[in-house]
Amino acid sequence: MSFYRWCMRYGAAILFIIAALQLVLALIVVVQAYSSMGGSTGFEANPVSERPAQLLLLIQGLVGALATPALTFFGALVINRLDRRADPREAEPFE
After folding, report:
1. Dihedrals φ, ψ of 38, to 5°?
2. Residue 57: how many CB atoms within 10 A of its CB?
3. How is residue 45 annotated by DSSP?
4. Longest CA pairwise span in the chain (Å)
5. At residue 94, what are phi and psi to the nearest 5 degrees?
6. Helix (H) or strand (E) holding 47
7. 20 to 30 Å CA-CA from 47: which of 3, 14, 61, 77?
8. 31/67 Cα distance (integer angstroms)
9. For the chain, which residues make up each domain, given as ranges?
10. Could you read off the pLDDT tens digit of each residue along the chain, which spans 95 residues?
């Protein structure tokens, strides 16, 4: 079986694995960015907390981390549903 045929046969599974890897890597980046943020800024006499800004950036990072894998997962879902609806006798038209 050629590489092309293998990829076409297991396209939904390949996209699902890619979506999982994208999610894990994006979450690692968000956690790493959140842990590298400082605690507070300002003058010594009047320190100002940056906690609300950090939480806002964390939420924004998490939403961004979920956006790309969600699209890839949706593609895997569509391919999987279309494969289930298709006639199994027509699954390999090249053979």
Report:
1. -75, 170
2. 15
3. S
4. 78
5. -90, -10
6. strand 47-49
7. 61
8. 16
9. 52-85
10. 688 888 888 999 999 999 999 999 999 999 998 888 765 555 566 566 677 888 888 899 999 999 999 999 999 999 989 888 876 666 555 55
